[in-house]
Amino acid sequence: MNNAYDVAVVGAGIVGLGHAAAAHARGLRTVVVERSPRARGATVRGSGHVGTTLQVDAHRALAARTRELFLSYAPRARFWLARRGTLAVATADDELEVLRGAGTGRILSGREVTDLAPVAGAIGGALYRDDMQLNPREMAPAFAAWLAAEGVDFRWRTTALGADPGSLATSRGDIRADNIVFCVGVDLESLWPDLAARHGVRRRATDMMLATGVGLEFPVITGSTMLRHEVFRETPAHADLLSRFERERPDIIDLGVGQTYAEVSGLGVLIGAAHRDEDDAWPFQEEVAFDVLSREARRLFGQKRLDVRQRWRAVAAAVPGDTLRARAGDGIHVSAAGGDSAMSMGLALGETVLADLYGP
């Protein structure tokens, strides 16, 4: 095997694949090192929601560029990508005021919302046309397979052990590379602990479920999602929304629940998520999180019973400011996107890092 490259990327999640794709597009000899036999981390365990309009300022530009890149790569790598947008559902006046204050998307009446999705109790909502949806379990392996067919080398089942300028040490021997980019998410704290501590990187455990489909054509977000995203937090009505949830539904706050529903044909509806940032993401999940997720789904869709098929936990990096670009040494770089934002910004983040290294 070739052991000399222009760029070595550590990690085959969406951020790592974004960096590899950007390097390959420049004609650079590129290798991806991944300790697992295939992508199996936070990228494939999420909802597949590409929330372009949920970002603000510089992150909105990254998300918009990521959208363009997904539209370019999907037909070539042959993975499903839906361009229907996102439906935000308001079931209370303060939620509708937050949607109005955000100033993005088209505001809908309650009747318009229920015409678009089988939800109960909607008094209004908003439709965000620029958002997209993919099947995260299909996209990552399809994208990696296409990059491999295009000439990017992949070293699966290979663990990165560390790096010196020009050399990446792995469990299968050293790899020479002019630039080495670590896109390892939460594993940053073990490979570069001082850097991770300096930048405030923590672990974010996210609990999700898969249930039988309910007939959604759009990814759906609700009031609890409005508590988490900056585009909503900046609105005047957000304080009232937060106060009501703290008073009436404190378990939503305690468990970090942000309701997102994304249905994939042939798979079901991906339901998330309960989030918890902690230094040690304990692998034993509390049933209370799934009880709340089930309760909120039944309430939204007006169902007495929810047919849950799978439950799981993803552990990703929680990055202050949602993105991280740092230098760990000469020709050694670290790149990360927070767990909630990686799918929406990861591809463009890779392009930005490669532009920093090799010019626009």
Task: Please characterize this protein's 3D structure.
The model has no long low-confidence stretch (mean pLDDT 93). Strand 11 and strand 12 form a beta hairpin. The chain has 2 domains: 181 residues, FAD/NAD(P)-binding domain; 161 residues, D-Amino Acid Oxidase, Chain A, domain 2, CATH 3.30.9. The protein is built from 14 helices and 19 strands. It is globular. 38% of the residues lie in helices and 30% in strands. Helix 1 packs parallel to helix 14 and helix 3 crosses helix 6. Strands 1, 2, 9, 10, 11, 12, 18 and 19 form an 8-stranded mixed beta sheet that branches. The protein has an 8-stranded mixed beta sheet with strand order 6-7-5-14-15-16-13-17, sandwiched between helices. It has a 3-stranded antiparallel beta sheet with strand order 3-8-4. With 360 residues, it is α+β, with helices and mostly antiparallel strands.
Key phrases:
alpha+beta, 2 domains, eight-stranded mixed β-sheet, D-Amino Acid Oxidase, Chain A, domain 2, 19 strands, FAD/NAD(P)-binding domain, 360 residues
Summarize the entry for a quick read.
The protein is an alpha+beta fold. 38% of the residues lie in helices and 30% in strands. It contains 14 helices and 19 strands.
Named CATH architecture of the largest domain: 3-Layer(bba) Sandwich
Strand content: 25-35%
Quaternary assembly: single chain
Shape: globular
For this structure, what is the CATH homologous superfamily of the largest domain? Answer: FAD/NAD(P)-binding domain
Instruction: Enter the CATH topology name of the largest domain.
Output: FAD/NAD(P)-binding domain
Number of structural domains: 2
Would you state the CATH class of the largest domain?
Answer: Alpha Beta
Radius of gyration (CA) equals 20 Å
Please give the alpha-carbon distance between the first and last residues.
31 Å
- The helix fraction, in percent, is 25-40%
The assigned structural class equals alpha+beta
Number of strands: 19
Average of per-residue pLDDT values: 93
Count of DSSP-assigned helices: 14
Low-confidence stretches: none
Largest β-sheet summary: 8 strands, mixed
